[in-house]
Amino acid sequence: MTEVAQLAIDARSVTKVFGEGALAFKALRGVDFQVEKGELVMLAGPSGSGKTTLLSILGCVLSATEGQVNIDGTDITGLPDTTLASIRRARIGFIFQGHNLIASLPARDNVALVLELRGVKRASALAAADEMLARVGLGDKLKSPPADLSGGQRQRVAIARALAGDPPLVLADEPTAALDAQSGLVVTELLREVAKERGGTVVVVTHDNRIFHLADRIVHIEDGLMKTEDGSHA
Amino acid sequence: MNPMPLETAAVPRLVRLRAMGRLGLRMMFHDRLKFIGTISGVVFAVLLAVQQLSILFALLNRNTQFVDNAGADIFIVPPNTRLLQPGEKLHESVLYQARSTAGVLEAQPLVFAAATLAKPDGGSESVTLIGFESTSRLGAPWNIVGGDPRNLEQPDTIFLEDSQREKYGAVNVGSTRELNNHRIRVGGFTWGLVPFGPPYSFADIDLAREVTQVAVDRMNFVLVRVQPGMRLEDVRDAIAPRVPEALVLTRDEYHSSIVTTLLKEQLGMSFGISTSFGLIIGLVIVSLSMFSSVLDNLREFGTLKALGCTNGDLSILLLVQSILYALFGSVVGLGWVTNVVEGIRNPLLVPIIPHYVIYAAPVVMVVLCLFASTLALMRIRRLEPGMVFR
Predict the structure, then answer these.
(1) Residue A29, in any domain of the structure
(2) Three-state DSSP class for B2?
(3) What is the rounded average pLDDT of the residues A184-192?
């Protein structure tokens, strides 16, 4: 593994092809994408532009067909599944479009679970989870199962889960998609606030322009290519 | 920020395993309908399999109970004997050879023959008449529910099977009947001594010889008690060369011979199939329930993979669920089956659930549930963590 410490994300010439032969579809066409540590970057673009594919590759849940990807100084290209799982576990926090909380677990256990997966003992994991949920304004909902929470509250639990244990990188896929405008704004503000105070790097995939002002930088992607400031393909 | 290095992330595996186990438990109880469905599969598998086995053991016991309860350590039987049936008769010299063998405490003759009991209304019923030396306890009746066994020392007195009283024409202690045209008096009753053939009845050996026309120097079996402290096998080996015209078996050997013969020739196939069906039905139900549970929670499993769970971690989750399903289901199933077999208990069929079956059932169910979970596990293994972004 090559150490490239300055950047949280350093993806170069990333190509992703789905399918083979005549059915092959190029979702990413030699994308370069760098994010500095502590930055909050929003990846914007129309549906099918390749932004979620890029996020999946950065999240080590999908392999690039070509190119090189460094996450927090680790070259993830060609790593085996178990190592990728280990990177996801230790270094990446995820926020999904549909919150994806475990229905059978109360809020605090949903948050504590990711810490336990990292090897944090249960008592410490629960204490950290309680603290994190209190930070996102859910200190009184620790024992509530997801079914008893509103959409906004669930997404706050998802933020707490993503940020618990201070992972160096947080990846969010359309975190406001299932929320109304006000809740979406509140949730994203909270994500920015908590991530900034903890020094985390955040990449948010979104096409919700109401939250763009919260980004340090907005990167547009279209047809699998990054667009430059003037709108031409990079 | 101080990110957790990759190397240490793999070290506290025990914490992760515990977390997975706990999560498996929570997921199991969360979907109560699936939980009940899966547990029902195990319960029915236990119920069907153990109930079939209990009947199998009942049927085997019907045919081995005399050997088990006759009080003999060693049986001298006609050659080629495999079951407890009247066959070629032994000469009394066999009895004397046994009695004169070192290590033998007591040897007694036994007559074992079919007889016909005439009913007052003109009909008749077959019985298996066991004639034993009434001054000894070798071959004497057991499970006595009426009368005094010492009554058998009285002339022309026999014990009959209690469950057949109505068939024999509402007999009671003191009733008289004709057995092979010989007038006898009923001296008592036994309960549940019914082999595959006609029910056992007991009489003094002299009466049995007279009724069944067995010569005084002939007998069907010789029953032997061994002196305390002597090894059965040593005494058996000492008797055997002295009676080359007979077969000498310890009680356990004779018991095993009967069981093996019945399993090979009659019962094994039919009960093996029915017991297997019970297990297969359970396997299918558990397998489909667990698979369906995984399908219902596919997004959650995908999320867990995205969060860093490996296939191994998720296998632990399923492993915990499988074991718990097996144990819960076994406890309920065994509780249920003991009541069921008690309900079907009658003198002709006394279901038996040996202790080892009770201990083995949860073990078999754990294996079955683990096997059943492979379908679910295969689905989880194929699950791409990237599905959470779709």
Answers:
(1) no
(2) coil
(3) 86
State how far the Cα of A31 lies from the Cα of A234, in Å rounded to an integer: 8
Is residue A17 in some structural domain?
Answer: no
φ and ψ at residue A61, rounded to 5 degrees: -105, -5
Kindly list the distances between the CA atom of residue B271 and the CA atoms of B44, B276, B367, in Å, as whole numbers in the listed order: 16, 8, 21
| B73 vs A: CB within 8 A | no
The distance of A37 to chain B (nearest Cα, Å) reads 10
Range of the domain at A221: 38-63+78-227
pTM of the model: 0.78
Instruction: Give how many domains chain A has, as a whole number.
Output: 1
Q: Which residues from chain B sit within 8 angstroms of residue A86, using beta carbons?
A: 6, 9-10, 308
Count, residues in chain A: 234
> Would you kindly state where each structural domain of chain B is located, as residue ranges?
12-63+267-389, 79-245
Strands B144-147, B157-161: pairing kind? unpaired
Least CB–CB distance from A117: residue in B2, B8, B19? B19
Query: Is A6 a member of any domain?
Result: no
Q: What is the CATH number of the domain that holds A127?
A: 3.40.50.300
Would you say residue A229 has pLDDT above 60? no
Specify the pLDDT at position B222.
Answer: 95
Q: Is A82 on the interface with B (CB under 8 A)?
A: yes
Question: Is residue A173 within 8 angstroms of chain B, CB to CB?
Answer: yes
pLDDT digits (tens, 9 = 90+) for B245-282: 999 999 999 999 999 988 887 677 788 888 888 888 88
